[in-house]
Structures are given as structure tokens and as C-alpha cells.
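INFO batch 0412 | record 1 of 1 | parsing
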Amino acid sequence: MPILIDASTKVICQGITGAFGAQHTRGCLHYGSKIVGGVTPGKGGSKDDNNLPIFDTVHRAVKTTGATATMIFVPPAFAADAMLEAAAAGIKVICCITEGVPVQDMIRVRAVLDEMNGTIATPAGPTNAWDKIALIGPNCPGVITPGPKTGGGTGPGDPYTNAGCKIGIMPGYIHTHISEAKLGKAVGIVSRSGTLTYEAVWQTSQRGLAQSTCVGIGGDPVRGVSHIDVLRMMAADPHTHGLLMIGEIGGSDEEAAAAFISEEKKAGRLTKPVAAFIAGITAPPGRRMGHAGAIIEAGGQGTADSKIKALQAAGVEVALSPADMGAAMMKAMGLG
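INFO prediction complete | emitting C-alpha cells
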């Protein structure tokens, strides 16, 4: 059982008539995702180029289509309102792809979502039954639960798969379903970097592994779900046989994840092998490296070295080069 999304997930796109929204709606449709409509205020009642219905509000889209997930392609200035509108309409999986969302806007979004989620208890141990609102991103590639290749991926009538779901901008064809994996095992991938997610997918696929679900949590300093949130779900998924975590300099998420892994192992709740890679080993303090959240603070907090040491102390197999992510996962699983 995958986490967050599966082949039955109904998805809408906020910003469906914009250039990027239209392009990636088409890409998700061609992959096989159940895209059931989109939202662009002022264009309700019309249809997009894929003959999908367009609604003025997320509330109307959800009420009409039964959608439970959304991908957001709106300008940064409007992204916060788009996320909050989706949450208020009852959407459970919100993937905000937009880059450049102001930090103050995200602080407001997190405050509202944390309050909405506060009435839902978080289980002590691993669980893939996520009942809270899951915000993925912003500034992320999205989430994918791969399906087996059943078609050419040339259009809605000939999708790449009839048993998977892709929400976002990742290339679907590089992913492998467990039924097509030579080793018959699948890994779950959680990453702050979109590009490194694709690289990890490619490397694990080339080594005979599949991916159960891949979640790009985004590289901004204030974002939705964390490494721990995703690791908790993947640890409970019976079809995920290993966990691959990709982090980077800045913040303390990876150190917190290392502490979580250590505690869960000691409690006997995490028995799956874990591998990791931390980007930014050579980054100088005080200089942002790519993502807004990828910055080492003046006091040295958030360095790659501190994160790597914390993960190694927790028994995680850490790759020291992005070229070795697949090899590290294989080694952690006792397969290489």
C-alpha cells in the first residue's frame, strides 16, 4: 500500500490555465493520474485543452469532482491563499510546486494548517494512515506513487500506467513499479531536492529496485511535511522495503530525522534499512546554495558534517557523493 496517493486519487490543478499548470496537468494525465479538473478564478464553467472542467473555486471543484488532492501552479504572491483555500475545501494532499513563496506567507500557512491539524492525534509509531492535511512543498517536485507501464503515455487515452499516480513535475517514466523490479523490492524516497530525487530514482531503478512512493518535500525554510512525517509513513508501509532520505545544508530537519530514526530503532518500530545523502558538503557558511533553506548559519548550525554525523550515529548508511545514493541504499539493504 503506497502512502499519501494511489491510482484512485482524484486530483485537481490550481492554476490549470497558466502555462506551467497546463503543461504539467497534461503530463500527469499522460502518466495516468486521475486529473478531474482545475481551478482558475473567473474561468469557471469552461474547459481546458484536455477537456477538463474549470471551476472558480476549490470548494466548487471538490464538491463537483470529489477530488482529495491538488497541485498548485500559481504565482508566488497568490500561493499562500491557494494552499489555504485547498485546505478549507477539504483537500487532504496539497502539493505546492510554486517556487519563491514569501517566508512570511508560509509562516501564516503553517500556523493555519497546524491549527487545523492540531485536533488530529499523531500516532507514536510508524503509520501510513495519514489523516491530517499533508502539505507537500512549496518549491518541490511533488509526489508520485509509480505504476507498472501499461501504455505509451501519449495521452489520456493511452496513459503510461493505469495503476499509478503522479502529482507534480517529476518525469514519470524513470520510476519503477515493484512488479517490474528485478530484485522484487521497493524503496521509499523523501527529499528536499527535486533533481536529486530524480537521480536517486534513476540509480535505484538501474540497480533493480523499485520505488513505492517518492515525496519531494521542498527546499524552502518553512514548508509542509517534514522528513520525519514521511519516514513515519514509509516505515509502516508493508510494500516499502528500504528508506532513502535526501537532505541538504540548512536547518535542523535532518538531525531531527536522525534522532527519530534512532528512537524508532531502539523501540523496535523501525526495522527497515535507511540510507541517506546530504548535499552541500563544500558550501561556505552564510552563502545560500540553490534553495532558500540551504544556508549554513554563521554559528555553524545546519552544516552537512553535523547532519552526516547524526545520521551515521543513528545507523544510517550515508552516501558521501550523489553518485553513490543507489549504492548506499543497496548496501543498507544488504544487496550490494
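INFO post-check: The domain at 172-332 is CATH 3.40.50.261 (Rossmann fold).
INFO record closed
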